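Consider a concrete sample entry:
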Amino acid sequence: MRVHPVLPLLYAAGSALGIGAYALQHIPTVHLDASPVEDTESTSTALDPATSITFPKTLRIPSKFPLPTFTLIGVGVRTVSFLGLRVYSVGFYADLSNPKLNIPFTATPEEKIDYIVRNTACVLRIVPTRNTSYSHLRDGFTRALTVRVQLAKTRDALSPETEFAIQSPLRKLKSLFPNSAVSKGTPLDILLTAPTGDKKRPRTLVFRDLGAVESDWVAEQFVLAYFEGDGISPPLKKATVERLKTLGS
């Protein structure tokens, strides 16, 4: 029997919350189990200097079916430029221990970012610097994906078939976010699952405790949007580029 790619995450949540297998197959919410297990010593954390928000250098997400240990690559602040408001800090993590990950040493940092996102599991951890709402975060995410669609079309990198196919997951993404508040300092982990090598099992973008979207294009482009040009967070892009200059096999 083929196992749905999101079911391991769903069953992990079920174990923690006491939800039966039947119920798990009939609800849209996806939980990445309880709270991530993080290193707490100062030597095991990285500081976003713009916000003083700290990120664990390694991130382990408990699950009935083990997930990899994610390594922090870069951190930075997301700022609304015309107001100068710091919206959230963001950390970029990846499964650098993946045995199938052979980052080309001679590639540019931008090429290494693209390679990592397309070939292994990644996590974006977003930590609001002020009280906000899920709808505000949703609007920012959907705007970023709209830009990615237009950019791909100008590059002739989006076929009509793919553009049609991503409409449903884009609508699904918009529907995941409740009309409720998000408190300052509350992390939102967004997991991009590793590629399976099976075209019938697309990669999944999991928004912790909110739900998931299945689409290779949407899942990968969501993460890559943070690194296009100067990036959604220029400090994150800069920190990631610096980290990747010496990383590769």
